[in-house]
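Figure 2 data, in text form.
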Amino acid sequence: EKEKKSWHNFHNLAVKSNRFFLTNFYRNIIDKILQNSINGFITVSKSCAESLKQRKYLNKSKIKIVYNGFAPGKIKFSDIRKELKIKSNSSLLLFLGEYDLRKGHELIIKVMDNIVKENKDIYLLICGYGSKTNFSNIKEIVDNSYSKNKIFLKNFRKDNLNLISQCDLLVIPSKNFESFGYTAVEAMSLKKPVISTNIGGLKEVIDHNSTGFIISGNNHKLFAEKVLLLLKNHKLRKSFSEKGYKRYRKYFSSEIMTKKYLNTIITDK
């Protein structure tokens, strides 16, 4: 029996050609060997699959897309509004991400500046990890903003599902390098609408005008308008929440992901 070739899995965007000749030379050698020794690639989004076409010796590889799956566990409740010392009925936006400007901190701060001018009872909680330098740079931007008293900067927290369960909206203002958008799936599993930029895999996870809003470009005014619309319109927010949960169950549950990986291994297709 002919020996089966393996499938290789990658969860990020393939890098483009490097300006250094030797780097590309050795990369191409490895890519060519890899292409001839595997069945194909499995990745998590169309964006990731498209990025592989930039590689000279991998651009004709067999590529299968299997979305990341998620299974929400038991949530240990801890009152975040009480912790932040804001009113129990205050609106709360949540942004989970690395402290790195590519994640869109500048954009979401501009969004908050616009929001606060309309409604001063809306807050933004940002949690993440990152270098002290990046954190300090972002803190400086916050401190110089109109909405500085409405934004909380916190370190990475393990109770992300607890935070998501208590927010009104999850916001993802990424500028680039979003291969999938796992936090969007987590939010949808907990019936929370998502507003994001149209970067990478985010536009595959979120169904625009159905489970949330996808904002093109660096349009902080439009982003703010959509936040205010969802916070004001309870009926629309509930509709987005229910449709988001259905979309999660249809495409992004751990059971669906597992079945697709198993089917690939068994059938080798």
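Caption note: The CA atoms of residues 215 and 222 lie 7 Å apart.
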